[in-house]
Amino acid sequence: MVKLFQLQQPKLLYLSSLNTPLAASRKEARGVQLDEVDRLPHTLKYFAALFIFSLTIVPTVFLNAVSFLWSKDDTKLARKSVNERHLSKLLRILCITIHIFQLGPIIWYIQAIISGIKFRHANDMRTKQHFYCEMVMADRDASLLRFFEAFIESMPQVLVQGYIFLGVYNELKDDQRLLFTAYFQILSLLCSLISSCWSISLQHRNLRIARPDKDNMTATETFLQFIWRFSTISARYTCLVFFAVAFHHWIFIVLCIHFFISLVHVSALQLTQIDNSSSKPGLICVGLVIVCAIIHIFTPFNMAEGPTIWRYLCGYTIEVLEAMVLIFASLLFL
Fold first, then answer.
1. Which residues span the membrane (predicted)?
2. 180: helix, coil or strand?
């Protein structure tokens, strides 16, 4: 039965024109040359499934853990401000339940919307300022979580999609072509890249709005930063996909090396002091360094105060040198 299942048509729609119609049974399949370009050896199927599953589950658990810690810290600060000793058990249970169901980031969007509505309906200026600050802070936290989600969860999956698509395209023969539905896959990849790049610009803009000591970014400045990020990230993404298609699992070695180099880079140039009011500041600091190093796999990112020229110069120098090596090796192989 397992063998018969292995002979079914591939699930990827744009591969259907590349395969010879497969027989429904082993007996009918005799003498038919099967083209199974989208299949893995049976021993690797479980590893591939676990790998794709981990790209989804691990990031979302991490994001909800961060969201829960932020909620806990905000609650602690609120209790200090009103001299309350105990938090309402109902609100605590509700918060925990929301994060268990992986809906934590939605809390910050809801808080921003509620604060914005209260700001609109407030009468005196002092109350308006209070709710406006709450709205800005919630929007800042929501955009930061969205930024983390884009580069910890979305971009690795987009990298896998690009590897599969380009690998199939590279195997096309002269008389074969992709179906029209394949272009929807290209559109999906492009939209994911645009969304991820926009999350950086939006996070940077919202962060500056929340900082009284920083000038706000105009719409033009935000758009120009988006163009800059899209250009650099798409170039980096292309290098990684080409190398992955050429050398397959060796891409993991490259990503691990880049990750550890980024750990050193971030620890040396961007290590920040965490506020002592935060719960477990040492753990949060280590988590931020690891997250920033993961983001550096796709693009340099600064999370510390102070001059940024040396941080970005170091990050982009590493990226350019690595890109030259990856493209040169890929072109030689492909």
1. 46-70, 90-110, 182-202, 250-271, 283-303, 309-333
2. coil
